[in-house]
Amino acid sequence: MAQANDLRKGMCIRYNGNPAIVLEVQHRTPGNLRAFVQAIIRYIGTGKSADTRFGSTDKVETVEVHHQTLEFSYRDQKSYNFMDPETYDTVTFEEDFVGEAKEYLTENLKVDVLYVEGKAASIELPASVSLRVAESAEGVRGDSANNVQKPATLETGKIVNVPLFIKEGELVKIDTRTGQYMGRA
To answer: How far apart (Å, rounded) are the C-alpha atoms in residues 185 and 178?
Structure first.
């Protein structure tokens, strides 16, 4: 247990029975009122954020958290297999846990896995990944008005809009936060 005054950005606490990461902390002392700590937290299980207020002397339960870097190895019927590059152990996650990250997973891609109290809680992808264009229509000559784009299917099955000059087989850089084309890789 820690005091609310000890909260820092990046700490993991248990709030309303659920583990949450502290995104922002402000210590406030308004006029003639008692001091309080205002924090923005994000629940690990749901991903939803909340603005919370603690008295400066309130007790807050901290939660054990650690990050582990894993490399994506392969996908089988209903699960995704990752390898720990230090011990070469295989770690398997179900498709539901991987979620939308599966649209960016390619062989040997390094991801960070957040473990809360020894249990995997979330997968963090790099900010951008390079993926090969598997299928894309040909751009028509003369279709070069302002920023014309066409749909392209990537090697993972994700469909993104790319400029007309991108051809099948090219590597493109994709932003994993927005899912949009960033440029050639």
So the answer is: 17
